Every structure is written in C-alpha cells, then in structure tokens.
Predict the 3D structure of the following.
Amino acid sequence: MENALALTALNKSFPSHKVVDGISLNVPKGCFYSLLGPSGCGKTTILRMIAGFAEPDSGDINLNGKRLNGLRPYERPVTTVFQSYALFPHLTAAQNIAFGLERRGEKPAEIAPKVKRMLELVGLEQRADRLPANLSGGEKQRTALARALVVEPELLLLDEPLSALDPALRKRVRLELKQLQKQLGITFLFITHDQEEALSLSDQIAVMNKGKIEQIGTPQEIYLAPASRFVAGFLGAVNWVDGIGIRPESTRISRQKPDPTAKSITAKVVTSTFLGDCFHIETTTEKGAAITAQVPFNEEPFAPGESVHVYWHPADELPVRE
Amino acid sequence: MNRLRTIFLAPSAAFTVILFLIPLSIIIAYSFLTRGVYGGVVGPWTLENYQRLFDPLYGIILWRSLVMSTLATILCLLIAFPLALFISRASDRAKGLYLYLVILPFWTSFLVRTYAWMFLLRDTGFINTILTSLHIINEPLPLLYNETAVVVGLVYGYLPFAVLPLFSNLDRLDKTLLEAAADLGATPWQALYKIVIPLCAPGLRAAGVLVFIPCLGAYLTPDLLGGGKSIMIGNLIQNQFTTARDWPFGAAISLALMALVMVLLVTLLRQDGEAAL
C-alpha cells in the first residue's frame, strides 16, 4: 500500500537527553496508525515535529512525497486534535470548525455547508452556537475532531484525544472515532500511552520506548508476538516463569495435575478476587515467583493458602524471554 | 469568625470613611455653596456652580482633556501590547527582569521624571542639541510647551499601567491556542488578529481604563510640559482652589469629572460582565 507519511532517521535532542533517537516509520494511506509508549518516550515530540511545532535535529519528514521539514505549521497539510482540545474559547462550536476553512480563504457560502455537514457527522447540530465553555467533555472532543477534519488534511494527528474523557465515554468515543476514520478514509496518526486504546483502534502500532521504536506491527502481532520484554509488559500483564512469559488469560489453575501436554508448576493461592466475568487469582510458586491467572466465573472458588497446579499450553508462551 | 472579620476589615473601613467618604461629602457640600471672598465657602446653597460647567470656555478644556487622554490611551495600548506580548513569551527568568524594568520608573518621583522630560524636550535640551550639532536642523524644534509634549508625557507616565494588565492577560493565554491556530492554517498575524486580540479584550479594556482615568485627571504633566497653554481639567480644578479661589466651582468640576469617569467605568465593566457570560 502507498505510504502517506514517511519518517526517516528522525532525531531530536533536548539539552538534558535525546528524546527521539533515529526513528523511521511508514504510515500507509488511509491507515489508523498508533504511536504507543509510556509518557516521555518521545511520541509527542514526533507528533510536534510532524505538525511543525518543533524541528528535528536531523532526519526527514515526508508526506505524500512532499518534504515537510522547515515548513511553518500553517503551511503543512496536517491538522491536530490536541490533548486539551485547544478550542478557541471566544468562538462557538460552528465558528471553531469554520476557522480552518476561513484561513484557507474559502467564501462564507462554501464554508457554511461544510461546517453543517461536519456538525452532523459528529452529532453536534444542536450545539453549533454554543461556546466551548458550555459544551460537555465529549462534545468538546468532537468539536476538536470536526475542526481538524473539516479541512480534509492529508494526515490527522491525534494527541491522546481521549485521555480527558471519563472511562465510559472513552469507550464509546473510541468506536465512533474508528468508524469516522473508516468512513472518511483520512490517515490517522494516533498518540497514546493506553495499550487498550491502541489495540482496539489501530491498523498498525509502533511501540516506543526511550526515544526508539521497539516494535511495529498489527495489534495482534505486537500483543501475541512481542519483540521485546518491554513490549510484552507494556501491552498487558505478563507472568514470568523461569524466564518464560505467559499472559494471565492464558494461565490456568487446577487442583488436579493437568494434562502432560501442558507445562505446569505447583503454587499456593495468595488472593482470589471475583471480578464478575472471572476470578483474578494471584499465586506464588515455591521459588517465590508471582503468577496471576484468570479463572472462569463459574468455577468453584479457590481459597487463599490452597495448593494448586498452575499450567499453560506451550503455544501460548510469548516469544520473548525475561 | 465574625469578630475576626470585623477586626480585619476595620482598618480599611476606617480608611475609607475618614479619608474618602468624609472628604467626598465635604466636596459635595462645597459644590452647592457660594465662594468666599478669600477662598473658602459661604452660603447660600446654589446650583450656579453646575450651571457654569456648560460655559463653552470649560467645554473646550473638557474636550481637549478627552481628546488628549484618548490619544495617550491609544498610544499607550499600541506600545504596551507588543511589549506585553514580548514579555509574556520570554523565559520565566527574563519575565521577572522585564517586569522589574517596566515598574522601575516608579522608584523615582513622577515630578522628577517629568522635569527630565523638560530637559529632553526644551529648545536647549538633549534632543534639539543633538539634532542641531548633527546639522539635521538649524533652528530648535518646538518640542516643549505644546499638546504633543503633554501627550508624550502622559504616554510615558502611564505606560506601565497598560503593560501590567496586558501582560497578566497574555501570560494566562493558553499557548496551545496559538499552536491550534497555526495548525489550522493561520499565519502569525491572523492568529494575533483572530485569537490573541479577541481573548485579550478584558486586558485591553482594563489597560485602557487604567491609563485613561489618570490621564483625564492629570495636572502635573500638562502644567509642566504644556506650559500653561494647553491646560486640562486637572489644571482647571487646581486653578479654582489656588489662584481663582473659587472652591465651590472647583468642587463642582471635580464631581463632574468623577461622574464622567464612573459612567465610563460602568459601561466597560458591564461589557466585561457580558463577556464573562
């Protein structure tokens, strides 16, 4: 597939340390691409360099064959959904959305229908004339999204746009965001530190740590076949048993010795927590390693102190070692 | 709790009553009385002092005061806005230094600083001497004792009052909004015009009020730099209490000036109230 964005050997240092260290990646056209990593890993700096708010020390930023290095932010065919939304507080939702079109010199007669269509698309027709202060968190988020999308950017940058929403709303908006991206076909570069967000939304994910890319792949690839211990641990909980990593949901517990095809180890139950859809059971092995397992909700509860067999299937082992 | 509040408020309440409300009442009373032969006031009560305000002679002075104060205010805002913008974008350490420099003139008496301006502007002053010795001019330029000199003096004197509220407003402005504007295609000028200035309206109004009001009542600057030719309301009031010995009329002009300022303030504050909604 043709690439929209291509970053080549991008470097950026701050006085204290190197924040972006030789980053190269390609974002295919129409892709929902996530940069996933802990705070301080350099993902936001990459976004700021693509938007033009910061210049790389070295390396190239190309968008659809055009070099963006050195262009002012207002000269780049890229828009951003800011973490804080950065809505203009003195303009209504509709005026915020119209802002980018006005800057492109479009006439009011052309702007009005585009703004109206965008308001409908994000379900804000009833909120068009409200100031940001009178919009709810979700409405602000959608206004910011509409404002960035209405100018039909070649690339939309999203800087943790869901982090300010409450958890229930975040899940709903996540679905809407994915649908919207598919519907419009605009390339999204999504910055997040939330692995669940990245896994559920992305076509491709680049996992970052300390200014470098640890792994690039589809959500399944990076979850099931992490290329490093960091990726394995960042994308979900991992039990490390004698250097081998197993996800808690692949870890089973039984009172009888399991099938010889499974690997097993004896352990003692420490705590058992009922979570509704499953039990979350923490155990400890004779060597003192902590192993967490998820047990179906309808099984007979395990009691703390009980001796059990912890087992898993070799196929579920992660391909990284501790 | 209530007792503590009473104790805490007592000094300011006493201050307001003794140094503000009582003198104001005296001025109000004086303004309805008749002048004494050697100053002071005598009976009977009269409205004549207020009727005299409508004399065209005083109308000219009021008009001149309004025009010069407006001009000085506009110039102050034009100079203060870029300066405040510059300071607000400096590093935290530099900000402190620049703000310190802005208020530095207050360390010296306003009178001394105004004399310094006379030294700069007079025929044998600094500017004219330099220009003459460089043969740019042959005759000294008439820089002092005119309305321009007064406006220059007013702008100089009250510029810090414009810089500080504008700085405080600009400093609180979310910098991400400027990035968002640029991101959506706004050039720096468009961002300034469409985002920064509208969001600075409260600061601009506050700065305008803080400069305009003292300008309107100024008497030292027009007295020294205007040379008695272009007097403003402040000088008129001063004259009534000194040379003219017409205290009741002076009191009436003072109250009229106060009323004017209050009307302006209420109008502007109402706008701020609406903006806050």
Remarks:
- Residues 146 and 226 of chain B are 5 Å apart (CA to CA).
- The domain at 65-276 of chain B is CATH 1.10.3720.10 (MetI-like fold).
- The longest strand of chain B covers residues 34-35.
- Chain B has one domain: 65-276.
